[in-house]
Each structure stands twice: as C-alpha cells, then as structure tokens.
Design goal:
Number of domains: 2
CATH architecture of the largest domain: 7 Propeller
Radius of gyration: 30 Å
Largest sheet: 4 strands, antiparallel
Number of helices: 8
Subcellular location: Cytoplasm, Cytoskeleton; Cytoplasm, Cytoskeleton, Spindle pole
Distance between the termini: 56 Å
Main location: cytoplasm
CATH topology of the largest domain: Methylamine Dehydrogenase, Chain H
Helix content: 10-25%
Subunit structure: Self-associates. Interacts with nudE and dynein.
Strand order of the largest sheet: 1-28-27-26
Family: Belongs to the WD repeat LIS1/nudF family.
Organism: Penicillium angulare
Number of strands: 28
CATH superfamily of the largest domain: YVTN repeat-like/Quinoprotein amine dehydrogenase
Length: about 450
C-alpha cells in the first residue's frame, strides 16, 4: 500500500519513534529498529528531541479528535432541535397575517416577576429582567439559557438593545436609580453606569436602533438623553407629568411619546425638547405607549376617514394603554381616533405588528389581544390565560435593518413616504415575539 507520507516525512517519523523508544528505556527495540532502517548508532542522541515532538503531535491529535467528536455531537443535537422547532406557524403562514398561537418555548429560570424583555437586533439572543435583580440571556431559537448576570441592587425595570450595528449594547434600568450598559461582545461586561435620575428609572430606549443615544424616563418626572459612548447626559427634559412610566421613540428618532401617572401621554420633539401635544382621555395612570410603524399608516388614515394621506413623517400615529383597561389610538396632533375596549384589567404592554395590520396588547387579565387595524381596529383574536400571572411586557423581534434605514438613502429626509406593504413584503420581517409575566416565565412565540 502506498504511503501517504513523503520520503522525508517517513524518515522523520521513524527517527521520532526510535527516539521515543529510547526515552522509555526500550533500548533493545530502538536498536533493532535503528539497525533495520540503517540509521547510525549516534542517532538516538542526535535526534532524541524528535521524541518530544512525537508526544506533542500525539496529544494534539487526540485533543483534535475529541473536539471533532464534540462538534459532531453538537451539530447532531442542533439539527434535531431545528427539526423539532415549532416554526410551522410562521413558515406556512403569510407573515402579514401571522399572529401568535401557542408558545414555542417557555423560558424558566427567574425567581421573581419578569419586568422587561428585549431582542438582540442581529443574533438569536433574548434578554429578560426581573424583580430578582438579574438579567438573563436566552437563545430564543433553542429555548436555552445562555447567561445570567447581576449588577443592579434593586428591581430591574427596563431593557433595550441598541447602538451602532457594529457595537450593539444592552441597556438596563432599575429602582436603584441607575442605568447600566452591558457589552455582548465582552460576555456582557458592565462597561458603564449612568447616574443622574433622582428616583426609580422606569424605562430605557435607544433613540433609534443604530444610534448611540439612549433615552430614559423616571419617577423623578424627567426624561434624559445619554451618549452611550461617553456615558454623559447630553439633554434633560423636565416635565410636570408626574411619574413617567413608559416612553417610546418614533421610527425616525425625531419624536418621543411618554405615558405618565397623571393619566396623560405627551408627544415630545427630540430636537427642541418641547412638547408637541398632550393626549388626554385616559381615566387612570398610563402603563404603556407605542408609535405605529409606517406600515400601519394606511389603515389608521382610513380609520380617521381621511381621503388623502396627511402623514408625511414616519411618526403619524401612536397607541396608549393604561389602568383604565382601555387602549387609545391617537394622531400626532393629539386627536383621539378610537378607544379599544376588551381587557378586563390593566393594560401593561403594546406592540404593533411589523406588517401594520394588527396591534397586540397584554395585561393583568393574563391575555394577549390582537386588534385588526384593517377592519376598524376591532378585536380580532384573544389568547386567554397564556401565563399563570399578570402579563407585564411584550416585545416583537426587530428587523435586522429598520424600515426607515432600508428604504431611504442618506441624502433623503425622513419626511418622505411611509414604507409600503410591498416593500416590507420584499424585505421581510421576523415573526417572533416574547412576553413576560409575574409568574416569572418568558414565553417565546414563533
């Protein structure tokens, strides 16, 4: 049989074997092999160092074989997990019509109520925070816990991923009055702690998914803007709204909406820091708010009854939810479009379907409700008793690139046109969302 080694490689191997035999006191065997191969007597002392090379190569080869076996087993496990992953809901259904049915995974590890969830914009990572003062990172595709870390000394109230796409950060806020920045590329090391608020920090949100500006809201009635690269507070809006319980930026980052304990929501101009309008109509403190995506504008315009689109910005409509058990739809000027009634308890979270046709809400009645904006914002579907406790938060996995970035060149202004359904259909979006509850569990729907 032909050797796979060259002549020089064969001689080097033979010498290494003879040298190794000499190091283990097998001198007779070494001498016999040396004589048969025609090596001189002085070889053992001259090339004995090759014996150590042989040992190193043998050890390295053994380690590599073990690594290969481990990787093969991992590939096999992941392949089986992929085959069993219940994605048929999203794969076999039109994305624009996709709505949650049953959880693909239930994530259990927290010891207290879940307060917030956030998806990494590029990877299959989901962060969750809890009253147990910990943050957990999950692989939502596999339903596996990847990491648990702690830095806050009180209940963590909010989470958000964002920053430059090449350096994504995770921001968290807490009842300990602090905001912390965690770096996923450094195994979620705490790289900065931002202080300045005088009371509980209720919410943190990156102004846009790819900018380095973080916005926070607090019980101290202020809204602060932070540069995450330096940790500096670059702007503060002092309000008379009372406890600001939630805030959300518009898709272009030019506007903010905040919901407060004074029963009102406020639209803020980010550039000037001035209020654009005050949304009055709820009968109790607000718990959540959200901007409608550009894909929802055509449905909301029809709901208003306008014949021609009046919305030029990507921030034309908003939704608010509160302790009065209602959801309200508004235009940017503060006009009430419609009140949605259906929850039996506080409304805790809102998220618009990326396709634009639906608004999803969760609350203390343990239900997820889906409202069809294309049919007068009527209640379309209800998932009852999804959790064993109050549902405290809901989040939709973001697109890798936002609709605003995808469809506008750097020279275009952000006040051009809404993203059409056809454009979203072409570019696609993930049909994945997560909910968190006081039952200490996170559900992933996919």
């Amino acid at each position: 049989m032909a050797s796979v080694l060259t002549e020089s490689q064969s001689k080097e191997l033979q010498k290494a074997i003879i040298g190794y035999l000499s190091t283990i006191n097998a001198d007779k065997t070494a001498a016999t092999m040396r004589d048969e191969l025609g090596f001189n007597v002085g070889f053992t002392h001259t090339y004995g160092k090759l014996a150590h090379i042989l040992e190193k190569k043998w050890t390295t080869n053994t380690l590599l074989q073990r690594k290969v076996m481990t990787l093969e087993a991992q590939v096999d496990r992941l392949g089986k997990a992929l085959e069993s992953f219940p994605q048929s809901q999203s794969r076999n259904q039109e994305p624009f019509k996709w709505l949650p049915v049953q959880p693909a995974y239930t994530l259990k590890s927290h010891r207290a109520a879940i307060t917030s969830v956030a998806f990494h914009p590029a990877f299959s990572s989901l962060a969750s925070s809890s009253e147990d003062c910990t943050i957990k990172i999950w692989n939502w595709e596999l339903g596996e816990l990847e990491k648990t870390f702690k830095g806050h000394t009180a209940t963590i109230t909010g989470l958000d991923f964002g920053g430059n796409i090449n350096h994504i950060l995770l921001a968290s806020c807490s009842n300990d009055l602090l905001i912390k920045l965690w770096d996923p590329s450094k195994d979620y090391a705490n790289i900065r702690t931002l202080s300045g608020h005088g009371h509980t920090v209720s919410c943190v949100r990156f102004l846009t998914p790819n900018q380095n500006t973080l916005v926070s809201a607090s019980r101290d009635t202020s809204i602060r803007f932070w540069d995450v690269l330096t940790g500096s507070c670059v702007k503060t809006i002092f309000t008379d709204c009372g406890w600001i319980r939630d805030l959300a930026p518009s898709y272009d980052g030019r506007w903010l909406i905040s919901g407060s304990s004074d029963h009102n929501a406020t639209i803020w101009n980010v550039a000037s820091g001035n209020s654009q309008s005050i949304l009055r109509g709820h009968g109790s403190p607000l718990e959540c708010c959200a901007f409608a995506p550009p894909t929802s504008h055509s449905y909301l315009i029809a709901l208003v009854g306008a014949k021609e689109p009046q919305v030029r910005s990507s921030a034309g409509f908003v939704a608010t939810g509160g302790r009065d058990k209602t959801i309200k739809l508004w235009d940017l000027q503060g006009g009430l479009i419609k009140t949605l009634v259906g929850h039996d308890n506080w409304v805790r979270g809102l998220v618009f379907h990326p396709g634009g046709r639906f608004l999803l809400s969760v609350g203390d009645d343990r239900s997820i409700k889906c409202w069809n904006l294309a049919e007068g914002a009527r209640l379309w579907k209800t998932l009852d008793n999804i959790h064993d406790g109050f549902i405290s938060c809901i989040r939709w996995a973001p697109c890798a690139v936002s609709p605003i970035e995808r469809h506008h060149s750097p020279k275009e202004t952000l006040e051009t046109r809404p993203v059409s359904e056809e454009e979203m259909r072409t570019s696609g979006f993930p049909c994945v969302l997560a909910t968190g509850s006081t039952d200490s569990k996170v559900h992933v729907f996919a």
